[in-house]
UniProtKB/TrEMBL annotation, chain A:
Listed name of the protein: Uncharacterized protein
Domain of life, source organism: Bacteria
Record-linked InterPro entries: DUF6092
Pfam name, any one: DUF6092
TrEMBL record, chain B:
GO molecular function: oxidoreductase activity
Descriptive protein name: Nitroreductase
Signal peptide range: none
Organism taxonomic ancestry: Bacteria, Bacillati, Bacillota, Bacilli, Bacillales
This protein's UniProt keywords: Oxidoreductase
Residues annotated as domain Nitroreductase: 7-149
UniProt key word Cell inner membrane: no
Amino acid sequence: MTNTEKKSLEEGLQNRLLDYVSYVLTSARGLYKEPHSYGPMRMVDSLEKALFLLRDMGIKDDAIEESVAVIRENRWRVTSDPEAFAQALDDAILRLVKVTLKESSTSHE
Amino acid sequence: MNVLDAIKIRRSIRSFERRSLPPEVIQSIEDAILHSPSGSNAQESHFVIVQDPDQIRRIKRFAQGLSGDPAAVVVLCTNKEEALARGGLDTAEVLRFVNLGIAAAYILLTASSLEVGSCPARSFHQKAIKEILGLPEGIEPELLISLGYSNQPPRPKSSKPVREVISYDQYGKEKP
Ligand SMILES: Cc1cc2nc3c(=O)[nH]c(=O)nc-3n(C[C@H](O)[C@H](O)[C@H](O)COP(=O)(O)O)c2cc1C
């Protein structure tokens, strides 16, 4: 990668990070008066945006992406079928538990 | 497409193809706005149609309810002073929001009839959007409508049972 390419990549990521920070801050402000059910949805959206940022910075984990895919698929259910939404979050969380257990078993070896 | 078909196929779209809208679509949105009714014909609302990708990106930073990458965003604004001057107190207090809601429906249905996806969004920071658009004092952004070609199949519609929503002749009475 040339220096110019590196600089434009960094600028792109800086811009994306600013998109992200502004989004999270505006979401926090909005939730002060918005319906309670929007809270989990905004956190899920923030999570997805953060993971896209990490991916574009070259950090990738299939298990995390799978977990996000499950949430993403069911994200819209938060207002129409909250129970199904909660179950999708459970499913996604249990995938992350597996990652955590796998990590701790390898760190003890 | 007739209006009822446009109503029935409309669904809030939150993920878009990276494709801009042809000028005819924007022209139709403009026609829809200009043909929208307003109480006492006050026409106090203002609409900013944003297509510049940089400006859309700025808006998205402060509009947490706006999902995906739309090709355009229509910002629907009220003007309280003009509403008062042209329509009176009721227009300033209530009708300007009714008028804006009707204009929003016209925009949504025009988009739907052209098979353009859309989503209204009220979750945004009003002052931030006002600054970004350079809106003058007294003109407030109240609703955003994203527009673009959907890249997702429409999700199912969940509606309340008809008797909870519609009565006939008297409150709570079912269809004769
Ligand atoms: C006044 C208004 C404000 C809305 N604000 C948002 C919003 O900020 N974010 C969003 O994703 N959807 C928003 N919506 C879309 C609704 O969630 C959507 O219309 C509703 O769930 C019904 O789904 P449908 O439009 O697909 O029929 C809004 C709708 C209206 C009418």
